[in-house]
């Protein structure tokens, strides 16, 4: 039934006319589902799925909404008998999370339907929140998110602002307390407050600082939920009537104010202090302060390792086990989730609060001194999500008028650092691959090396994707839908790689290239990445980024050494990635573009070409002659590219299967079977045996 309702009912509402929908039958079925009771978490999860699938019928019968809400709220607090004192199992946690998600989905998709019942919903949530131990912090904040979604339907700025102030009052009181400010600002105090310096005798049941961690998580979850969900009306007239519209940009776009801005900005300084403190936890002296039980609290979770390595996640076999078996796993989960959520807040702050956020005093300086502090000690598995969920959305949602004052001062040092870091990482990987196996390899197991190399690849893709979406615009590409790569996209490489003519620099890209230090960092990173051993990153960078960036600086006076370096970088990429058809075609095309555009001004490029192994000098002279002395009848691009490809063939890496192939040359050998020609004059109709063609037709 669950599969049927999920697959059929939504399609039925999408395709059938309103009069043809069997409302009575749907309501009867919903009633039966609501009346069904079970203590089996797996079956209850299926019941919740059916409730969500059948909920569109409630739009025809709103009187059933209270029953649906009661069913969902009962599932939010679901417990197996006598389990409440023990750690909740994964099955129970999944049911409770499923119920919270269903409430959020209902409030998101049908806010007008739920709005008349807002007071009932609000009172029920307040009752649940009054018991600090009844719900987890994520469950509390999920219910608060649902309330914020409904408050968007007030369409009254002052009313929604007052509601959000009331909703966030407990969080503000806790977050701004003197004790919390002290804890969030001092790494040593933070470690002690969350209990990471303790030595636990019973790592399964004993957790004296669990309540402290839950309070920090509650504050961060709530701030994130409000920033992510609070919005102004989509209709400009409604926004204007409700007091959300404050003016227009010079280009005529409306400027809105978010009712959550005042409340969130009050908490902003302590949020940055927490991020700075969390970054400093990775300093060696802070890691040394972790207790014996929590020595690995900052390490990667097993679920993260499995995702990076592409290993399947455990499903039903661990369904009845606790989510976190020990206090160490709970501490690891706390640090991981806290780090991600802090950066999710910053990433959503720009799209949510817009100009009110980007005009915060010295915002770029504050972020550089908090989010980007101590990056040398931040591991790759924490740096990567920071770029994806924080830097990328924050930059893409920034209005153009703040590029000079905010984006460039922040991205310049960041891009410079990222290039230095990735170069060092790839140098280690290259040295490791060239060294023979020796005793030193025993200190770093092969599985750990695989994990480290894959992390470097994923971080490289994240960095190059960030630079690309900041600098290059391509028609038909939505940068916000870029998939988060986790190692399963190596097969996504295509062989049609000619960059589209519409690949141009964005306004932000032009602004960045005007800053000499930023432009240098971006160009060096882009062209250096061509020789890093990640095929997918190489192809994306070659097709989307390198030429638009280089084309922007061509009108200037480039140093001859810089021009030679750009060209050599592409040839190095061919040496490493030439065995892959997609990369080879893209790199050959880029090398051809560079040589054709810059050879007339820089003779150094010819000197580089002459160093290519097995190059035919006469053919090179012929190509140069046609390039420098074009005839009225221009040679077709394809012929010129083919000629150029033959010239640089000596530096194109061959596929592994062909590298050591010995060419076999077979001369003309005598035939194994020699056909005997019949003698002339032999009568085929009558031979000596009397068996000719006539015998074939005898009966």
TrEMBL record:
Residues 4-658 form the Exportin-5 C-terminal domain. GO terms for biological process: protein export from nucleus; RNA export from nucleus. InterPro entries: ARM-like, ARM-type_fold, Exportin-5_C, XPO1/5. One of its GO terms (molecular function) is nuclear export signal receptor activity. It comes from the Eukaryota. GO terms for cellular component: cytoplasm; nucleus; RNA nuclear export complex. It holds the Pfam family Exportin-5. This is Exportin-5. It comes from Patagioenas fasciata monilis.
